[in-house]
Amino acid sequence: MSHNKDPSSGRKSSRRASIGEIAASLVCLAAIFFLSRHQGRISPSPDSKPAREQPPATMPSPSASIEQRPIEVPQGGYLGSAACKDCHQRNHAIWHASFHRTMTQLPSKKTVLGNFENATVQFEAKKFTYRTKQHSNRFWIEMPIPFWIEMPIPASQADIGRQRKEFPVVLMTGSHHLQMYWVPTGVGRNISLAPIAHLNADQRWVPVKSTFLAPPSPGLRMEKDTWNNVCFRCHSTHARKNETISAETFVYDTQVTEFGISCEACHGPGERHVAFHRPTESQASNKPEGPDPIVNPATIPHDFSSEVCGSCHSVQYPLARGQEPEQFTPGTRIGKTRHVLRRNDHSANYIKRLQPEIFSDPAEIKREFDTLFWPDGMIRVAGREFNGVSESACYQAGELSCTSCHTMHKPKSDARTLPVWADDQLHQQAITDLACLKCHQSSKYATPNHTHHTTESEGSRCYNCHMPHTTYGLLKAIRSHKITSPSAAETVRDGRPNACNLCHLDKSLAWTANDLHKNFQIDVPSLSPDEKKLSAAVIWTLKGDAGLRALTAWHMGWAPARQASGTNWMAPFLSILMEDSYDAVRYIAGRSLKTLAGYENLKYDFVGPIEERLKATKSIIALWSNGQSEILKNREDLLFDEMGNLQIGEFRRLLNVRDQTEVTLKE
Q: Which of 168, 297, 489, 632 could form a disulfide with 525 if both were Cys (CB 3.0 to 4.6 A apart)?
C-alpha cells in the first residue's frame, strides 16, 4: 500500500485526504488568518457611523452645481481642443476616441458609466448604504453627510454624523477601468471624492478604498479637496487652483482650460500657433516670427519628448515649500517646474528640506519611498512610467522615448479599430519585437541562441523578459518601464519578482538562478531552503507582502504564465488570496480564478460578508479536488505530496510567517 506523510503531524497516513478535509482545512486556515488580521479593526470608526434610514436633505436646485465645481476657462494662451479641430480633423477625432480625452468629464447620459437608475448599494454588512438617482442629465448620490461638509443642512437634522443628503455629481474621473465621482463641499469650487466608484468591466459599484492597494480600514470616508490639490494637475489641461486662504478653510475658484488631457497638454498653448497660421486682421501686422511655436513631441529630441509625458507620468514634488508646481510647457525641461523624485540620497535630502516636519525622521523617508519604489529604486506604481524610462540604458545612452512605443494619433496604416488602439495607444511595431529591433540586431537578439525559447514562444518576446509586469496599479500588474534583464539575485535582495518566475510560476527561484547561470553565466545567489525548494509563486502567495500577493494573483490570470506553468494547481492558492485582508488582492485573485475553466460562474463578492466568501472558498476547493489530475503527484515545489495531496501543514507554516508589513502603493 502506498503511504504519504501528513506534514502537520509527521506521521504517515494510509489514505488519501478527502475533498471535504482539504476544503475544511483551507476554509479554516483562511477564516483564522483573516479574523486574526482583522481583530479589533472590523468595527466602523466614530467618523463613519452607520446611517439611520431617514429622508435625505433637500435636493439641490439644478442651477447650483456649476457654482460648486471647477469650470473651463481658457487662459494664458491656451484655447481648448475645439480650436484645433478645423485644421486637424483626423488627429482631433483620434484624440477624441482616447482615454486621455475622457479622463475628466462633466456628467451626462453619455459620460456616466455607473448605474444611477435608483440603485441601492451596501457595504460592510449593510452598515453603509448609498443610493444613486438620475433625472435627465443630472445625477445624485444619497449618502451619509461627512462631519466637515459645509453645504446647507436643514435645522431639523442636527446630528450631522448620522444624517443623509443627496449630493449632486458635478465631475467624474476615469472611463477606462473605473470611474470615480466628485461632489461639492459647499465651499467655493472645492469638490470631494464620493466614497463609491464604478468598476467598468464588472458593471458594479465598489468602495473607492477597495480600488487601491492599501491596508484594510473600517468605514467609508470622503476625501476633501483631493481633486483641487492633486488630481487636477494631470487629469485636466492647464489647471489653476486660484485659492483663497481664510482663518478657517481654503476656498478654491478652480479653473482649467479643458477637462481631460487635451491637445495643448502635449503640444503646448495654441494661441500663437493659430496666429502663426491664421492671423486675424488685427494680428496680421504682428504675426509671430521664426518657426511655428507649437511643439510636436514626435519630432523633438527624445529626452524633451519624454518629459512631455513625464510632466504627469512621474513622481514629482514642487520646487519650493508651499509652492504650487509651475505650469509645465511642452518642449521645456521638466526640472524647471518640478522635482522628479528618485529613491536616492538627493531626493531624500530634497523632501527633508521641503517638509522637515514630516521627513526629518529617516524612517518616514523610507516609508514614503516604499509607497512608490522597490528597494533598489525601480518604480513600483502605475502612472509614473517616466521614472522607469528615463533610468533605462536605452534612454540614457540611446534615443528611446515614450513615442518609441506609444502613439497619441493612430496612423492611417493601422487597421485596428479606435477602441482597440486606445487601450494602450501602442504603435503596431510595439506589439511585436520590432520596436526593440530597430536598434538591437535581430540576427543576434531575435534568435533562440539569445532568448533560449522557441521563436514563436512568449518567452522570446523582448518585453516579457526585459519589461515584466512588476508595476502595480488599477487593480492589475503593469509592465515595468525600466528596461532591465532578469535577475534572481535582485529578487533575493529587493523582493522584486523576476521575469522568469512571473512566467514560470510553478518553478523555484533556484530553477531560475541555475538557468540564468547556465545560459548567461550569471552567478547563483545564496538562497534560503524555501527558495531552493518551493515555487516562487507559492512563496509570494503565502509569505509575501500585499504588493507581491497582488502581482502573483494577477499573473495567475495572465495567459503566457498559465501556458508556461499549467493551471491545475492554482485554485487552492487563489482561494487563499481571495480571503486576503487587502480588498485589492481579493479582487485580483477572484478575477484570475474566474478565467480558469470550470470557475467562470463562481459566485464571489470580494467586498461581501466574510461568511459568504468562506462559502465560496469551500466550493472552489470542491471543484478543484474533483478535477485535479495525476500530474500533481510529487510536486513538492507546489506543496503536493507523492499522492497528490495538498500539504496543509506547509500551507500553515508559510502563512504563519507571512510578511505583514503594511503596504500602501501610491498609484
A: 489
